[in-house]
Task: inverse folding
């Protein structure tokens, strides 16, 4: 039973290289390659998967403490950046992802080249005018499962904004799903990366390719999947390692990820530090002014007292002379 088998397998080094060479040739000969990704592609970014040995659902079913999912500070992995480069160079025509961590969009994948079937943690939208908002933070605020209101309002129409995360028993976004189906039907090569292919309808999309006469399916995952029997090439390995070998075969180098928010944060921190320094200097100047004014006031009071005592002495001497 696939539900119970959590075993992870790894190809031997030489065997892995041979399989990746085959994968590279399939990509080079493909006219419409589609990649399908799941949670396994993001584990090296510090985001736990669902059905791995230490996955979220595995830990829940075994009564263990579930790992925390932290997407906010996570950065795209080598595999994410490689997929972005393959799309940029035209090797891959479309990307279908079950992930809502936002790392594919962060890696530079154009929005018209991706279907995020389960939403994006950084995206919220207005239900009234349909305007989308991209945030540098997690949009979801409500602790209730099916309450998607974020508490923010639309700048255009004033409508309530909702996060785009799809929970269980909720309908997928029609536009995202339709685009995924259209590209899967066009596809002559589907590459599955980091998913157990157990969640519908996303698990059925890669198999559509095989229904085409010349279509081929490649599955890259550490665990076995229910769709392995349809695969013309099956690779058991971590996705980052597969893409490291693949990019060498294709003579490509993925871009290094640069977080635009980091630069903004650095500038903000610099400005904050400058402001702190300025405020310190201003405070020091104010203190110096206060001290100087205090000393001046003391001198004035002392001078006044001296003049008073002098006048008193003079008046005494005058009275003595009169006598």
Result:
């Amino acid at each position: 039973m696939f539900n119970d088998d959590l075993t992870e397998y790894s190809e031997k080094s030489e065997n892995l290289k041979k399989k990746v060479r085959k994968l590279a040739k399939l990509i080079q000969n493909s006219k419409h390659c589609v990649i399908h990704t799941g949670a396994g592609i993001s584990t090296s970014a510090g985001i736990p998967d669902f059905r791995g040995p230490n996955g979220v659902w595995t830990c829940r079913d075994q009564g263990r403490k579930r790992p925390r999912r932290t997407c906010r500070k996570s950065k795209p992995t080598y595999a994410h950046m490689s997929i972005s480069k393959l799309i940029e160079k035209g090797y891959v025509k479309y990307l279908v992802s079950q992930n809502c961590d936002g790392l594919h969009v962060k890696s530079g994948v154009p929005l018209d080249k991706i279907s995020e079937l389960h939403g994006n943690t950084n995206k919220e939208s207005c239900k009234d005018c349909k305007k989308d908002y991209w945030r540098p933070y997690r949009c979801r605020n409500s602790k209730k499962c099916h309450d998607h209101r974020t508490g923010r309002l639309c700048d255009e129409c004033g409508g309530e904004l909702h996060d785009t995360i799809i929970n269980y028993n909720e309908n997928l976004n029609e536009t995202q799903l339709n685009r995924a189906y259209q590209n899967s039907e066009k596809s002559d090569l589907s590459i599955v990366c980091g998913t157990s292919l157990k969640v519908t309808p996303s698990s059925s999309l890669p198999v559509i390719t095989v229904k085409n006469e010349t279509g081929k399916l490649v599955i890259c995952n550490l665990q076995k999947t229910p769709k392995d029997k349809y695969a013309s090439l099956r690779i058991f390995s971590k996705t980052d390692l597969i893409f490291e070998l693949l990019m060498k075969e294709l003579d490509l180098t993925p871009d290094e990820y640069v977080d635009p928010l980091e630069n903004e944060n650095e500038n903000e921190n610099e400005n904050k530090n400058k402001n702190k320094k300025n405020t310190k200097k201003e405070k020091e100047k104010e203190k110096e002014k206060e001290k100087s004014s205090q000393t001046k006031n003391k001198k004035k009071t002392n001078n006044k007292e001296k003049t008073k005592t002098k006048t008193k002495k003079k008046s005494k001497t005058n009275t003595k002379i009169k006598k």
Q: What stands out?
A: Helices lie at 13-29, 56-61, 78-88, 103-106, 174-186, 205-211, 239-249, 260-322. The CA atoms of residues 29 and 195 lie 24 Å apart. The chain is about 40% helix and 15% strand.
